[in-house]
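Narrative of activities, Objective 1.

The group set out to show that a structural description can be obtained from nothing but a protein's sequence at a throughput compatible with the screening campaign. Below is one input-output pair from the validation batch, recorded exactly as produced.
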Amino acid sequence: MECAEIRNSFVAGRVPAGPAVEAHCKVCPTCRELFEHDARLGRGLAQAVLPAVEPGDLFALVEREVSQEVGLRARSRALSTRARAGVLLGVAGALLVFQLLLKRRPDFGEYSSGVFWGVALVLAIALVVSALRVTRGPSAPLRSAGRERGLMASMLLLPALLALVAPLGVGSPQGLAWANPANCFTYGAAFVMPLILLYWLFERRDAVPLTALVSAGALAGLAANLLLHAHCPSANLGHLLLGHASIGVAWALGLRLVWGRHQPSR
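Output recorded for this entry:
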């Protein structure tokens, strides 16, 4: 009996026993430790090591892995990048149409149309770029971590930068008055929850990088700001920063805490 045989027995899920094992443990203190306390150490090490796949078991392993990829999430993951991004953008567009038709800001007729549609266009373009990036997933180019972090930070900061432009379109001083930001924050964050659910369905990686989770939060923030831009009449800078621009950061932190506790850093 040799050390390798004892190790392979543990990895295979068996606790080796017999005269040969006892004789080996008398001269090998390392192996002897594996059997102490009802072989607790040996069992623990075996669970941390994946057994080598024998050639004859390869097809069975592949078939088992494929059989696990069933259901709605498996079908959603299988969609192409453009298809998944299109669904995200379609849902965001439908929510925007709902806001414009049924929940439109009361000062829509007084607010500068140029500023309104200019801000909306910038947010829409950023939303398209962000959706394509988020759904691209693991196909991102190698050594692109710096660019990914830069894009992620830009998407998080964009709503705050656009908040500086919003007061230019106000038609009356009432639009600059302070309004409770908690109402818009709650409204916007809740309205983009379908996008977060879709991201969960579309994400192909089980171990999602933290930058991807933050990017998904930024995507939700862009969509929320676009919806609130069509819904909220306030152009007060403090209100826009606290009640609108902060949503992306909040969603990014939420995803980081809930989903990203044990995820790789990139």
